[in-house]
Amino acid sequence: MAAVATHADWVRRAGELVPEGRAFVDGAFVAAAGGATFPSVSPRDGRVLAEVAACTAADVDRAVAAARAAFEDGRWRRRPPAERKAVMLRWAELLRARADELALLESLEVGKPITDAVTVDVAGAAGCVQWYGEAIDKLYGEVGPVREGALAVVTREPLGVVGAIVPWNYPLIIAAWKVAPAIATGNSVVLKPAEQSSLSALLLARTAVEAGLPPGVLNVVPGLGPVAGEALARHPGVDALAFTGSGETGAHLLSCSAASNAKPVELELGGKSAHVVLADCPDLDAAAEAVAWGIFYNAGQTCNAGSRLVVERPIAAELVERVVAIARGIVPGDPLDPATRLGALVSAEHLATVDGWVRRAESDGAVVACGGAPVEVVPGGAYYPPTVLTGVTNDQPVARHEVFGPVLAVIEADDPAHALAIANDSPYGLAGAVWTADLATAHWMARELRVGTVWVNTFDATDVSLPFGGFGASGHGRDKSLHALHACTRPKTTWIEHGRPAVAAAGDPGRTP
Ligand code: NAD
Q1: What is the location of CATH 3.40.605.10 in the chain?
Q2: Using CB atoms within 10 A as the burial measure, which of 12, 211, 284, 508 is most buried?
Q3: 168 lines ligand 1 (CB under 6 A)
Q4: Is residue 344 within 8 Å of 332, Cβ to Cβ?
Q5: What average pLDDT score do residues 86-106 get?
């Protein structure tokens, strides 16, 4: 486990790893129908980790057919909830037993620190599978308040075949957020991981089958978004789509749905979260720490990252000084070093995009207070240091668009109302935070922030029991919690006419007691 493995141990294990890159369909690994592959390149050092099946419409057809057959014959959905629960709990345990391998795949494919991969990503995915497993035999239907002589029950039924399309920034966790509630409720799933991060998704599915999930219930079709993803989104045999990714792709998926079978599409999109720190902040050191890690964790590649620091002017200089001091102490390191807290960005291309945003901000008048240029850590890798931009105004592009890198834009506000107006002046609405010592201000801000999650005097606190999703351009779906089960099921009303009431109603002489 990570607690005892050294940097050298992880490097050795990485060298010994032989990842499986074929698609996973009907319980077995299979090459893409056309035999084509694409390389999975590690941003740690530019090394090719594996050749991954480049699935096309033919593979998606095969996976959807397998998922459909599994759904129709009821091999999973008709199993009693307690049996489904037992399989999911076993699946969670097997994921924990495989933590090292899963974490290595995750760390190598997307460059995240191995310690985070073990303690956050693998632990979070296993915890999510366990949570939905435990939930599934505790869900009740409803009895409608209808007249005597009838019983109306509302049950929730699985949708059928769910297509899940996920991004690369938290490959295992987000796959688990989609797959676990869908499978717990009896659906079959076809999962399309991001091109940058197919390998842990494939192992996730294999582990499910080893835990007892019947073949065909969970299938994985790696491939390019506009090919495999698009085929899934347009497939008439897919009953619903669950998507996490960029707004652009999300909007496109709605048109794919409209052009095919009008399947419902759950969208979890990007963010530009405001981290508001007011002048009465109760603990500036704690706020500085939260602001820094709120953007630099996972190298800023987090949908809800606090990428805008909105700070009241009287404390701005002091807070920024503390954030910059913390940022300077977060030195990008080899993702395989257990001491590393900031690894690589996902790819060399993404690194160039992030750097482009910083250059653009500078030309718009922002000042680079720290960071601001790529650094070399492991030769061939994609590393960018924590970067703080001061003098940003909320109308500048760097304050409006997702940079998706370790780049903090500092925006000064005149007073709390101005800070709120800046925070809400964004197309996105995923999350936001406010630091204040005043209870009334905290409640007012929490109510008025147009976002799916608000933190008060903290940032990024989370639990699988709580819904996560956005307002506005951040999408409308909700991952995690019991709310996610609603998106995987639909209510069915059954009205049972069971005859005359046993006791005569007043004024109804025709009825026998
Ligand atoms: P992306 O939209 O480029 O890709 C996401 C997925 O969509 C990938 O699997 C990709 O292959 C697929 N895809 C791309 N084009 C497609 C098409 N034409 N048809 C079907 N599928 C297609 O996003 P990304 O760069 O992988 O991920 C980063 C984005 O995800 C950011 O915007 C981030 O904020 C967002 N995100 C949101 C949440 C949330 O919960 N709201 C969580 C994590 C990431």
Answers
A1: 22-269+475-492
A2: 211
A3: yes
A4: yes
A5: 98
Residues forming CATH 3.40.309.10 domain(s) in the chain: 274-456
CA atoms within a 13 Å half-sphere pointing along the CA-CB vector of 253: 29
**What gap in Å lies between CA 336 and CA 343, rounded to an integer?**
9
For 386-395, give one letter per residue: b (16+ CB within 10 A) or e: bbbbbbbebe
CA 325 to chain centre: 30
Compute the chain's Rg from CA coordinates.
Answer: 25
- Is there an atom of ligand 1 within 6 Å of 110 CB? no
Q: Please, which pLDDT band fits residue 4 given cuts at 50, 70 and 90? A: confident
pLDDT for 295-305, tens place per residue?
999 999 999 99
Catalytic residue among 109, 268, 312, 402: 268
Q: Which atom of ligand 1 is nearest to the CA of 245?
A: 30
Name beta bridge partners: 434. 276, 456
Between the alpha carbon of residue 433 and those of residues 219, 282, 403, 449, 459, the distances in Å are 38, 14, 19, 9, 6
Q: Has 303 been annotated as catalytic?
A: yes
Distance linking the first and last C-alpha atoms of the chain: 71
> If you take atom 10 of ligand 1, which residue's CA is the nearest one?
225
**CATH of segment(s) 274-456:** 3.40.309.10
pLDDT tens per residue across span 395-436: 999 999 999 999 999 999 999 999 999 999 999 999 999 999
- Region of residue 276 (phi > 0: left; psi between -120 and 50: alpha; otherwise: beta): beta
Fold of 22-269+475-492: Aldehyde Dehydrogenase; Chain A, domain 1 (3.40.605)
295 contact partners, CB below 8 Å, separation of at least 6: 275, 305, 306, 307, 309, 386, 406, 407, 408
Question: In the structure encoding, which two tokens stand for residue 319, read together?
Answer: 């807070």
Q: In angstroms, what is the span from residue 454 Cα to ligand 1's centroid?
A: 23
List CB contacts of 356: < 8 A, sequence separation 6 or more.
none
Which ligand 1 atom minimizes the distance to the CA of 248? 2
Distance between Cα 101 and ligand 1 center (Å): 24
Residues 475 and 469: beta-carbon distance below 8 Å: yes
